[in-house]
Amino acid sequence: MTAFPSKINPKVFYQLICFVLMCNIVSAQKVPVKFELESQTIGTTNGTVPFWMRSNQFGSVPLSGLSQSFIGKAYKDFSPLPPKDSTDKKQKLLDWGFGFEGRGNLGKGTNFQLVEAYVKGRIGIFNLIVGRNKNVMGLNGDTTLSVGNFAVSGNAPGVPRVEISIPDYYAIPVLNKLFAIKGNILHGWLGKMNIQNPVNSEFYYQSTFFHQKSLYIRLGKPDWRFKMHGGFNHQAFWGSEKDIFGPSFRLSDFETFKYVMLGKAYEGNGYYTSKIGNQLGSLDIGAEYNFDKINVLIYRQNFYDVGALSKLANIADGLTGVTITNKNFSKTSGLFKWKKLLVEIFYSKDQAGYPWSKLTKSGDEDYYNNFYYKSGWSYMNKGLGNALITRREDIKAGQEIRNEYFVNNRVVAFHLGIEGSIKDWEVLTKLTYSNNYGTFGTSDYGHSLGEFVHLNKGGVFDKADQFSFYIEGMKSFRNGINGGFATSFDQGELLDDSFGLMLKLTKSF
């Protein structure tokens, strides 16, 4: 876990851990700890792990070439919440749990990846999590099948955090439960990051924090067929501003956090007016209808990064999707059964960067890149957001790129995800086709800032078509043993062509 910055008292962190562990003493219902061991044998071609074998895996990624991986998991979940009219006094609303997942890779090299390590507590509808867990953020139909949220997609390992949340919709008793809410707020530690002072262009390597909050509202009583969803999420990298800007930065630590939390712009001596740190998120809306045999959810994530969404200047950009869930999946029989179908369109090409776009002070959005944090919206060398926005090291050689961390953030993608079963096999597949246009800096138009345009004086990023495919199948055997496979390939002009095959064997205890 990332070391504590000197300005944060670690005693507070460990007191929270002790609080969660104390929940075990007062929890009357015992829930067994579950263990799982998994062995994976993997082979990939062209020195590359295919896109869907490395994307949205929470950092759990095999080595390229021929390799062997071992994964260990241990979990204790919450006991089920009792019905409100329950008379069973042994069931309590106060509970605890924990999770651990680690991965070891052996191949051309060796490494260990800490995927999860957390403890959690529950008090009624509220959850407290301390540590690293598999975190995603945004409204979509299925986090496993989705191409990925804009803000946090599960592509990178979870940021170590202290988080308080209402993870599931809570129907407010007033108005006969017409409204339900869920949300979270957290403080996380990103470790030291490479930061450039925008005033004197000097570089620093400083401790950085992570802030996240969200609030989502559902309109519709629990037994209604039709419901509507709406909400927002807000994320920020921040911290060490005084160490970087010196006396010209006049805010205290608490005042700085308040500016970050409120998304408020700051103007100081030698520090031009800007929001503190790197802030982005999405405004999400959705609607669902519960038919007799299927449930249909339609959703839309509207992106914001540097301010264009407030003027609807980049309203064309967003993640739009529909998810159809088969409510009778477990009740039907046959050779093939479908469980869930997801279709999404990811569009980030506009960015309010065209000459005819509505004028904004911040110019084109340049998603995930940031003049202050040189590795942009990334953590542990992986993008925190949607993996279709491509890092410099993942791009195929020969394309026109600049000295940016994300060299392709203007994307139009069509994505399909299907989950179901074929006889005794559980099957999941993902297919993604995308058109990729680089950044505005490598376009005919150049980057913009207000009325000023930085003309592109170099080459132009050639439109690159890309197709990525993934399918996996798992079958249950005796005594908690499961076996299966996964295969994936990339074909196109953006990523190196590659093929991967994985054989899996798991044992649950």
Helices, strands, pairings?
Elements: H1 10-26, E1 34-44, H2 51-54, E2 66-76, E3 94-106, E4 110-123, E5 126-132, E6 161-171, E7 179-196, E8 203-219, E9 226-238, H3 241-245, H4 253-262, E10 265-268, E11 271-275, E12 278-290, E13 294-304, E14 318-326, E15 336-347, E16 378-379, E17 382-383, E18 390-391, E19 406-408, E20 411-422, E21 425-436, E22 447-449, E23 452-454, E24 464-476, E25 481-492, E26 498-508
Antiparallel strand pairs: 1-2, 1-26, 2-3, 3-4, 4-5, 5-6, 6-7, 7-8, 8-9, 9-12, 10-11, 12-13, 13-14, 14-15, 15-20, 16-17, 18-19, 20-21, 21-24, 22-23, 24-25, 25-26
Describe this structure in words.
7% of the residues lie in helices and 48% in strands. With 509 residues, the protein is mainly beta. The protein has a domain at 134-141 and 158-293. It has an 18-stranded antiparallel β-barrel. A two-stranded antiparallel sheet has the order 10-11. Strand 6 (161-171) and strand 7 form a beta hairpin. The longest helix is centred in the first third of the chain and has 17 residues, at 10-26. It starts with 9 loop residues before the first helix and ends with a strand. Residues 1-29 have low confidence and may be disordered.
**Tally of helical segments:** 4
Query: What's the pLDDT, averaged over the residues?
Result: 91
String of helices and strands: HEHEEEEEEEEHHEEEEEEEEEEEEEEEEE
Using only CA atoms, what is the Rg?
23 Å
User: How far from one another are the termini?
Assistant: 27 Å
| Low-pLDDT residue intervals, each spanning 5 or more residues | 1-29
Q: How many strands appear in the DSSP assignment?
A: 26
- Helix percentage range: under 10%
Which shape, going by the Cα principal axes?
globular
- Percent of sequence in beta strands: over 45%
Structural category is mainly beta
